[in-house]
Amino acid sequence: MPTNIAEGHGRGTDRDFARFLDIAMGSLREVETLVVLAARIGLAKQETAAALLKRTDEIGALLYALRRAKRPIAKP
Predict the structure, then answer these.
(1) pLDDT tens, 8-67?
(2) What does the alpha-carbon distance between residue 23 and residue 11 come to, in Å, rounded to a whole number?
(3) Is the Cβ–Cβ distance between 72 and 14 less than 8 Å?
(4) What is the pTM of this model?
């Protein structure tokens, strides 16, 4: 996720940045899936997984807000 955000920011336009923020959100969802799977197969404690998923929710909210701020305005 951080590398997606950095790459998008380095592109120099809000449109590109917004696109890479979308990619970062997809990466966040992948992390969530891996945390859930790790808990299900016993590689992570349920409490640890719950704490990590809470953090992914917080990060997702931040990414969503930043994405909305960078969304190009549609022309009619």
Answers:
(1) 999 988 889 999 999 999 999 999 999 999 999 999 999 999 999 999 999 999 999 999
(2) 14
(3) yes
(4) 0.84
Q: 33, 5, 32, 37: which is closest to 18 by C-alpha?
A: 5
User: For 65-72, which contacts have Cβ atoms below 8 Å and span 24 or more sequence positions?
Assistant: 66/21, 67/18, 67/21, 67/22, 67/25, 70/14, 70/17, 70/18, 70/21, 71/14, 71/18, 72/14, 72/15, 72/18
In the chain, DSSP finds a helix count (H) and a strand count (E) of 3, 0
CA distance 48 to 4: 25
DSSP code, position 61: H
